[in-house]
Amino acid sequence: MTLQRTSAYATTTGVAIPKQAGAPAREAVGGAGPVVRDLRDRAGRTPRRLFFAEGDLVVVSGLPGSGKTTLIKRAVAAPRLDSQDARDRWADRMPRLLPYAVYRPLVRLAHFAGLRRALRSGASVVVHDCGTQTWVRRWLAREAARRGKGLHLLLLDVDKTTALAGMRERGRGVSRYAFARHRRAVRRLVGDAERGRIPAGCASAVLLDRDAVDTLQGITFGG
Q1: 169 versus 161: which is more confidently predicted?
Q2: How far, in Å, CA of 155 to CA of 139, rounded?
Q3: Each residue's pLDDT tens digit, 179-197
Q4: E-assigned strand segments in 48-203
Q5: Residue 221 — φ and ψ, nearest 5°?
Q6: Domains recognised in the chain with CATH numbers
Q7: Tell me: the pLDDT tens digits for 73-108?
Q8: Environment class of residue 56 by beta-carbon count within 10 Å: exposed (0-12), middle (13-18) or buried (19+)?
């Protein structure tokens, strides 16, 4: 396992690309064996685009309010599965005063049904994952292995204050218990990645701070 903090990177075939002056416009994620790429604290040298192999799967994890949904909507043209989209669609159908907790099981069922269809299509997929449900990553890892492709994690390392402010800006929130549970799960994922460990079945993990998230404009497959 390799932890990379420099601007050198490898293509999906493992060919080394030399370091470049300034911010690289694009960075390919892949190579031989699992790898951790640390794009935090790059002082304006974060790549604007990340490239993955055609057919790969990408999971975006981080605290509620860390910017996962905003990043996915801005940067992803490939099929994307975000549970927040499913929640918004169901909210439009439900009576305004009906609590979300009442129809939450239907939202989750719709989200995972859509995810299953997308995975079975064989297309590249980007998935919003809260980080607390390890069975989702195991499912995605099995699916990636079945099609002979890679599963990659984008880990948004955003502090508690920034995440809470992000939720307030969107007019959303989670319970104190749920937020603490998310925080423990994400902290564990980030800590493992910093030590060069990523979940079984993953080909890579990419660590992003808030500046890197704001800089990143594209998550692309193939090319």
Answers
A1: 161
A2: 18
A3: 888 899 999 999 999 998 9
A4: 49-52, 57-62, 80-81, 125-129, 151-156
A5: -120, 135
A6: 2-221 (3.40.50.300)
A7: 999 988 888 888 888 889 899 998 898 889 889 998
A8: buried
DSSP reduced 3-state for 82: coil
Backbone torsions φ then ψ of 54, nearest 5 degrees: -60, 130
* CB contact burial 109-130 (16+ within 10 A = b; e otherwise): ebbeebbeebbeeeebbbbbbb
Pairing assessment for the beta strands 26-28 and 49-52 based on DSSP bridges: parallel
Query: Measured between alpha carbons, how far is 63 from 206 in angstroms, rounded to an integer?
Result: 15
> How many angstroms separate the CA atoms of 209 and 5, rounded?
13
CA distance 56 to 151: 6
Amino acid letter for position 154: L
Name the pTM for this structure. 0.81
